Amino acid sequence: MGDTNGQVVAGGNGEGNRLDQLNSPSDVLIDKETDSLIICDQTNRRVVRWSRRSGTTQGEILINNIECWGLAMDDQRYLYISDYVKHEVRRYQIGDKNGTIVAGGNGGGDGLNQLNDPIYIFVDQQQTVYVSDNYNHRVMKWNKDAKEGIIVAGGQRQGDALTQLSYPQGLFVDTLGTIYVADTWNDRVMRWPKGAKQGTVIVGGNGQGEGANQFKCPHGLSFDRHGNLYVVDWGNHRVQRFSIE
């Protein structure tokens, strides 16, 4: 803590498709087993891996020709990737190029077996896949081997009521099944307890702006082990930290 300058750990050589470059990366996770970063290199339509060891100058391609947006990894090191053009989420073993569909895959739409622009994803210890189903303004839960999903947040069309979401993005689910979601166009982060029909606003929701209690299109979110919430405040070009009781 206290650093005023960041350190480049992947890319940093301008936008491009060389192995030492990235182009509009949209998500990243840490693979502790190999001490590497796995990155959704979105505009290059690929998922790449960069070692965290010092001296690393380029990445390696894990999966090519994929319209990726979100990434997740489960306890067994399966990699999950959302494809926002094919409207599906696939699970891959590292080294596997094809993967298995675990959510969506039935074209874009609002049926329970469909997704429409799935972006961020979260996978729990039971290999349940949660998806921010962006154009459907809902969060979907797909149990392992399910043929259709369950609406667990939103799904009441676009809006700013407590029962609604507007282009949801970043997603986190705690061990109780409580869902935290960046409700992007409503400039707020919402919490939906398991089984709830409506959520509560935990930060934001005070109109769009630059104040400490405001956002401008929040995208990603995550928690640290102390329970602090970090929100990528996309339109304000900053990351905010909140302590949530």
UniProtKB/TrEMBL annotation:
<dbReference type="InterPro" id="IPR001258">
    <property type="entry name" value="NHL_repeat"/>
</dbReference>
<keyword id="KW-0677">Repeat</keyword>
<dbReference type="Pfam" id="PF01436">
    <property type="entry name" value="NHL"/>
</dbReference>
<feature type="repeat" description="NHL">
    <location>
        <begin position="209"/>
        <end position="245"/>
    </location>
</feature>
<keyword id="KW-0732">Signal</keyword>
<feature type="region of interest" description="Disordered">
    <location>
        <begin position="1"/>
        <end position="24"/>
    </location>
</feature>
<dbReference type="InterPro" id="IPR011042">
    <property type="entry name" value="6-blade_b-propeller_TolB-like"/>
</dbReference>
<protein>
    <submittedName>
        <fullName>Uncharacterized protein</fullName>
    </submittedName>
</protein>
<keyword id="KW-0325">Glycoprotein</keyword>
<dbReference type="GO" id="GO:0005576">
    <property type="term" value="C:extracellular region"/>
</dbReference>
